């Protein structure tokens, strides 16, 4: 298992940008690739099986909407990342809620569109493997994947808990 310090030593500038930036992943990807980033929602709703791995970090008292998706560009064959997101509905403004449930716009873009002031609290960066996620990212199933998990906060309340999975080889 690679430790955080070892990981930092092998990361490309792109890898450092996407893993450690506290800005919008969507904006960072668009800036780096020079292309519009879109979202493809795979599943969403309030059933826990959608994002089982986030369950341990979400209070049962939260009114939570879950989304499984990936970010991509029309110009690239492979998705940039796979994501599991918990949306804390009680902490989200009404019109933004509707757009989130519609599922046509990446979360980072919606934060910009609705001018929501946010901060990010990175909870975890680790290396993992998953046959399911590898299939979505179009990489070999034995290839390592980097998980970055963080809260997006607004007005000192969590509005999202996001787990982003990126191909390891893409960021070194």
UniProtKB/TrEMBL annotation:
<dbReference type="InterPro" id="IPR002800">
    <property type="entry name" value="Rv2949c-like"/>
</dbReference>
<keyword id="KW-0456">Lyase</keyword>
<dbReference type="InterPro" id="IPR028978">
    <property type="entry name" value="Chorismate_lyase_/UTRA_dom_sf"/>
</dbReference>
<dbReference type="Pfam" id="PF01947">
    <property type="entry name" value="Rv2949c-like"/>
</dbReference>
<dbReference type="GO" id="GO:0016829">
    <property type="term" value="F:lyase activity"/>
</dbReference>
<protein>
    <submittedName>
        <fullName>Chorismate lyase</fullName>
    </submittedName>
</protein>
